[in-house]
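User: Second chain of the day. Same drill as before.
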Amino acid sequence: MAKLEGLKPQNVFHFFEEISQIPRGTYHVDAISDYAAAFARERNLEYIQDAAKNVIIKKDATPGYENCEPVILQGHMDMVLAKEAGCDIDLLTDPLRLGVEGDYLYAQGTTLGGDDGIAVAYCLALLDAKDIPHPPLEVILTVNEEGGMDGARDIDLSCIRGKKMINIDSEEEGVFTVGCAGGGRVDVLFEAPYEKKKGNLLSVTITGLLGGHSGEEIHKARGNANCLMGRLLNRLLSEEVCLQEMEGGNADNAIPREATAVILVSPEKTDKVLDIIHKLESELQKELYVRDPDVEILVTQKLDQEAEVLSPEDTGKFARLILAFPNGVQTMSSDVEGLVQTSLNMGLVRTQDHVISLGFSVRSSVASEKEALIEKVRAVASLAGCESSLRGLYPGWEYRQESPLRDEMIRAYKKVYNKEPEVVVIHAGLECGLLMDKKPGLDAVSIGPNMKDIHTPNEKLSISSSERVWNYLLEVLKDMKH
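Assistant: Same format as last time:
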C-alpha cells in the first residue's frame, strides 16, 4: 500500500489505492460492494446495499447548506479486466500493481480501472471529508456497468430525493457530456460436431493491435482481432484446416487487441498454411501501419498430434460467419458533425465445451437503427443455423434543451478555468439514460479527468487532471448554496 502516497488530492488517491487492492471485474463485484457498504457503516452514514450489489450512500449537508436540494453523485464500481500477454496477475483474485510515470497513473500489465475507479474515489473522499462545504449528498455506486449496465437497470431509486445528478464516468477534462447513444449486447452460439483427427496443431495469434473503447474509439477504425482472425481462417480453407478453438478479446465493449485460433493441419499442407499466414501478416502490416503499427501474427506448432476438432466444412462455416457479421461504424450522424450514430463491435469470442460464443456490443443514438442492427446480427446468425440472444439493452440519453445543472456547472467551470467547457453528445454509453428513466425529470451532466486507452492494459489516468477536476467538483458543490 501507499504506492500513491504524496499524490494530490491525497484522500482521493488514498481511496483509489484502497479499491485497487480489491478485484472488481464486471460480474465479480461482491467484494467492492461490501467494501463500500462497510465504508458507510464505519462513518455512520445512511446507506442501502441492494440484492444486485449496488450501493447508495447519503450524507447530510454541511452547515449553511441544510435547505439546499440534495445533489446526486454517480459512478460504477466495476472495471474491464484486460492484461498483456504473459502478465502473471490473476485479475479475479490479485490486486492491481499500481505505478506512476510522470503525470500518469497506470497498472503494471493490466487495465487500471480508472474507468470508473476515479468516480468511486471522488465519492468516498467527499463522504469521508469533514471540511468540504456541500449540499446533502446522495451517492449512487452501481455495478456491472461494463457488462450492459445491469446494476443501473436493477437499482431502485425511490429513496433518492435529488433532481440533479453529476455522473463521473467521462474521460476528458473540460468536456461536459449531456447525451449519449443507447445500446445492447448480442450473444451468438456456434455449435457443430467435433471429431478426432491427427496432424500438426498450430496456435495462431493475431496481436499487437491497439484496441480501445468500442464507443469512444470505434471511429478510429482500429483492427479488430476477432474479425481479422475470421479473415485468416477463411484464407486457410483451401488447405482443409480444422478449427479446435478460438479465443479473442476481453469484453464485448472493448475493441479486441488479440485473438488466438488453434487449428489442425495435415503435415503435407503445413508449409503452405504458414506461407498464407505470413502473407496475411504482411498485408495487415501495410493496411494498418498507421492505426495499428505493431500488428503481427505469431505461430507455435505441436507436431503429430491427435485432437478433437471441427471438420473442414464446419471450420469454413464458422470462418464465413465471422466475415459475414457487420463490424465497426455503420452510420454517422447527420445532425452532429463527426459523431458516430450507429456501430457495433465483435468484442468477444470464446470456446467452451465445443461451443464457440461470440459477443457483440451494439450502439446507436437512433433507437430504430439500434433495433435494425441488432436484427441484422441475429439474422446473419440465423442464416448460419446459430442461436442468438439479446441482453443488456439500455436507452440513449436524450439532450435536454433546458438544464439548470448544466448552466450551474458551466458557470462554475468558467470561474475555475476562465474559459467555456465543451458540451457534447457522445457515441459511448452512460448509465444516465437508464437512471433518468427511473427518475423522470432528473437533470444530469457527465464529467471526468483525462484518461487514455481505457479498457486496455495501456490505460492511464492523469494525476494533475484528477486534481483539477476534484477542485472543480468542490467549486460546483460550494456554489449550489446560491
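Residues 191-341+349-354 form a domain with the Alpha-Beta Plaits fold (CATH 3.30.70.360).

User: Great, on to the next one.
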